[in-house]
Amino acid sequence: MSVFMDLNLIYTGDRTGLRTLLETAAHLGFSTVAINYVFEPTSKKKQVKIVSSVCKHLCLYQGRSRPIRVLNRLTVVMSDSSHFRPNATEYRSFDLLAVQPTTEKLFHAACMLYDVDIICISVSEKLPFFFKRAPVNGAADRGVVFEVSYSAAIRDSTLRRYTIANAINLMESCKGRNVILSSAAEKALELRGPYDVTNLGLLFGLSDGDAKEAVCSTCRSVLLHAETRKTASGIIYTMRSCSDSAGQEGAPGDPEHGGSIIDSQTIKPSLASDD
Amino acid sequence: MSVDLDHTPRCLLVSDRSSFLHEKNRINSQVEQLNFNYKVSLLLPECGSTPSHLDSMLNNFSTFYLIRKLPIYELLDKRFLETAVYQGCVYGLSYRTRIDEDICVALMPNGHLCLSLDKDSFQVLGVEGKASRFSHRTKSRYVVSVDMTESSMVPGGRGYLRLLTGLKSRLPLKSDFLLSHHPGGGASLQALLSRYDWSEHKPEVSTHALTCLSCPTQLTSIPPNFDPHSFLEWLGAVDADISCENSSCSFLSSLACPEPKTMLSQALRVSVCGLLLPQDILRLIQEIRCYLDQPQLQSWVALTVHGFVDSPVSWGGREHGALRGGENFYTLLMGEDHTYHLHLVTGAHDTCPP
């Protein structure tokens, strides 16, 4: 379904605030959101815990009968190559995996080597490096997308300049392909509706069609990429065994090769996908 | 590198100018081709209350029906096809489905059933269709268009059975549906309506009197005084109750009435909303021509007809999409000597109006 998604809602530890954020996102018309747990290995906090069953009753989104779908995402802020450990077991409980490289070498490694879904473009500082075509094209070939967040631009005018400058630099190299726009909102007031975000994309140098795709179909391809990554190219498909979060998993893909399911429940495939 | 921000969102505008008395005018075919009309707005200058014959005309628009959670395979029901679709003109449109998010269904008066589906649903349905003309890089929307009057779609035919199996078992689609039938009214739809939760609705008429309205002069002059964009912007601002003063202390709107302008002491804005049929709109246009024949203070009337934003088809059954707006409407500016200016507008993802 090419529906609108916002794959970056920052988790701040405030459950009421998070609930308001989800309600606002549902009201604005987003069908899927991802709660982003940002992990900085250099800071004091070592552990990142997922808030399980964040909202018992998920709000219905704008006039639909389906509730909003909430995913979990981990962003690792990397300043050294040891910060991201491939195939670490802690990453398995997250639906989406993202990295935010801070140097050119790490950016190159993230684009070409690391098994991630999203590469975040920093908006809080002027990027110390330029985007080269080779790693950007390499990332596009692998299905990794670049993410630009806009809520920093809402908060502060200096950050607004950095956001736009970094985004335009990115668009020059990637030509508007494989980009997603998301909010990185901590409060409900920092969220904007999907058509507003499409208009914002024009400011970042995207064309009309690219800007709309950045909010819907590219986000959908990120979710499919994440599923493929988690299921080892579609061979093994795992499902959480507790019943109330089984509905949240809701993945549309059927294992490509019809492989084994590591769970005692039988899962009825809902849609066949031959992507 | 700087971003080119001079481009405003693209729209298609076709302007036509003719007279009702000219035998080759295309106004009838242009009005009839827009099958699904949502709203008709009238602007009557120097008028305090709706004239009686116009008022009765507006209140006598055909009623329409809303069926809740109609399974779409019911539109292929044999009895429904025989009593309604083959006989006359059935207008049907899925209600509260968004063109760029959900599956939209339209049943056109010529017997064509049009489904606008996303990629997953299209692959599951398993019926022949085409990718949407407005796909950008990836094909994410597909259109299935079926002619129910064709020989392969006769109940029992191969195409018919394939579509029926698809809609019944592979992709069971259910949505709220708006339905209207042209000559027969509700009688021929009773068989379908009786099986589901339905309600009959009359199009909603609302009237609003305006005072001290600034208005461009000599609207119906030939050649026209104004370019269509500024005229349509002004008319839209009047319709949406947006101030055209452009005062320096207000930052909400910088829209202004095109020059040269005059001040109207009063004007009347009437709108009708619902599933409106083109035949009713043609009769309304005839009534307005009679109204303009009488001696008037002002010599023009502006009629704007909006199509549904989420309809999968617009003029002539051609594909309709929505980039950001999905607008498709036309404005008919009628003058006193049976002349008219017609402006047909669509958004970016749409085929050119006729």
TrEMBL record, chain A:
Pfam families: RNase_P_p30. It comes from the Eukaryota. Transmembrane segments: none annotated. InterPro entries: Pol/histidinol_Pase-like (IPR016195), Ribosomal_uS2_CS (IPR018130), RNase_P_p30 (IPR002738). GO terms for biological process: rRNA processing; translation; tRNA processing. Keywords: Acetylation, Nucleus, Phosphoprotein, rRNA processing, tRNA processing. SUPFAM superfamilies: PHP domain-like. Signal peptide: none annotated. It is found in: Nucleus, Nucleolus. One of its GO terms (molecular function) is structural constituent of ribosome. Residues 245-275 are annotated as: Disordered. Its main location: nucleus. PROSITE patterns: RIBOSOMAL_S2_1. Gene3D superfamilies: Metal-dependent hydrolases. GO terms for cellular component: nucleolar ribonuclease P complex; ribosome. Component of nuclear RNase P and RNase MRP ribonucleoproteins. RNase P consists of a catalytic RNA moiety and about 10 protein subunits; POP1, POP4, POP5, POP7, RPP14, RPP21, RPP25, RPP30, RPP38 and RPP40. Within the RNase P complex, POP1, POP7 and RPP25 form the 'finger' subcomplex, POP5, RPP14, RPP40 and homodimeric RPP30 form the 'palm' subcomplex, and RPP21, POP4 and RPP38 form the 'wrist' subcomplex. All subunits of the RNase P complex interact with the catalytic RNA. Several subunits of RNase P are also part of the RNase MRP complex. Component of ribonuclease P, a ribonucleoprotein complex that generates mature tRNA molecules by cleaving their 5'-ends. Also a component of the MRP ribonuclease complex, which cleaves pre-rRNA sequences. Belongs to the eukaryotic/archaeal RNase P protein component 3 family. PANTHER family: RIBONUCLEASE P PROTEIN SUBUNIT P30 (PTHR13031:SF0), RIBONUCLEASE P SUBUNIT P30 (PTHR13031). This is Ribonuclease P protein subunit p30. It comes from Echeneis naucrates (Live sharksucker). The gene is rpp30.
